[in-house]
Each structure stands twice: as structure tokens, then as C-alpha cells.
Amino acid sequence: MPSVSLFELFCIFFYVGLFTIGGGLVAITLMQQMIVERGLISPEQFYNMVAISESTPGPIGVNMATYIGYELHGIPGGIIVTVGEVLPSIICILIIARFLTSFQNRPAVKTVFTTLRPAATGLVLVAAVNIFVLALLSIPESASALKTLEGWSGLFKWKNIAFYAVATAVALKTKLHPIVLILFGALFGIMFL
Predict the structure, then answer these.
(1) Residue 126: exposed, middle, or buried by beta-carbon count in 10 A (0-12, 13-18, 19+)?
(2) Mean pLDDT confidence for 28-56
(3) How many Å apart are CA 34 and CA 85, to the nearest integer?
(4) Would you say residue 144 has pLDDT above 60?
(5) Could you identify which of 58, 77, 98, 118 might form a hypothetical disulfide with 69, taking C-beta atoms 3.0 to 4.6 angstroms apart as the criterion?
(6) Minimal CA–CA distance to 78: which of 68, 86, 90?
(7) Using only C-alpha atoms, what is the Rg of the chain?
(8) Burial 25-55 (b: 16+ CB within 10 A, else e)
(9) 0.85 exceeded by pTM
(10) Between 149 and 134, the higher pLDDT residue
């Protein structure tokens, strides 16, 4: 597994924080490109981190950054990477706060924000699809491994699909608090995966 220095990791997450417009879920796609595709962590490890980061309090982008930094460099990594993730936002907010009243009603500014909404929605959708594919499908790593699947039925993770269907039905039909479903999901993962 390739290694990365703490400074490089800080720069990666500064970049992610700088170009994440639309919230922490958008950052997941950038993190995947920057971390998983470089081979620093496996895709399965990454999506486990996503699941844990979504279920812990706080912004998911910051939670992911902290988790990845800790995983790769321990406590100093968690701290440095978190700072790298939030620093661009802090800088941007300070600049915007200084000049907001002078440009907030300009047509160009309104157009930029109107254009960014669909792009951010698309990035969130990509992250959601990636999570669903990893959680619900058994996609082989090579074409030769495809022959070992028992037809279409081997392509699906049936236990996961069943749990997802039941959890969705419970969430839609009851007023059960989401933390209870998260705890049941954790228990399901421990027992069956």
C-alpha cells in the first residue's frame, strides 16, 4: 500500500476542502478520487469510513477527513488533515463576510450559485450510487472472476438488500429515531458480514 506524507495529506485535504461546494457529501467523491484511486486505502475501507462518518455527530466531510488522517498517521494525522479540510472554508467565509453586502445582489453572483446547485447535486448522487453499489452488489474485481458468480443471483448481496428494504420500510412507516436504525445496521454488520 503506497504511503503519503503528512504534508501531502494536508495538501490533499486542503484541495478537497477548497473545491467542495455543496456540503460534506460532495467531498466524498473528491476524497475517493484523491485517496482511494491513489491506493492509500481500499474502496471497502473507504465506504466503511463513510458509513461510520455518517453515523457520528458532526459534518461528514470533517468526520471523513479526521478518520482518514487518523487511519494513515494516527492522532497527529487526524488533527492535521482535519485542519486541512476546514481551513479553506474558514478563509472563504472570512473573505465573503468582509465583502458580502457589496456583491450579494449582483446577477453574476446569483447565476454562479444557481449553476452550482445542480453540480453539487450530481456529486452527491455519484457518492450515493457508489455506496449503494458497494453495499448491495458483489462486483468481481476481474472479468475472470465474473464466471464464478452463479448467474445474476450471485451479483447481489441478498442479506444487505433485505436489511436495506426492512430498514427503509421501518423508517418510512414508524417514527423510530434514526440512531436506532444505525445501531441495528451496526449490529447487522457485526453479525452477518
Answers:
(1) middle
(2) 88
(3) 13
(4) no
(5) 77
(6) 68
(7) 20
(8) bbbbbbbbebbbeeebbeeeebbbbbbebeb
(9) no
(10) 134
- How far apart, in whole angstroms, are the C-alpha atoms of residue 166 and residue 100? 47
| HEC letters along the chain | CCCCCHHHHHHHHHHHHHHCCCCHHHHHHHHHHHHHCCCCCCHHHHHHHHHHHHHCCCCHHHHHHHHHHHHHHHHHHHHHHHHHHHHHHHHHHHHHHHHHHHHCCCHHHHHHHHHHHHHHHHHHHHHHHHHHHHHHECCCCCCHHHHHCCHHHHHECHHHHHHHHHHHHHHHHCCCCHHHHHHHHHHHHHHHC
Orientation angle between helical segments 6-19 and 60-103, nearest 10 degrees: 50
Domain regions of the chain by residue span: 1-136, 138-193
The dihedral of CA 68, 72, 35, 141: what is its sign?
negative
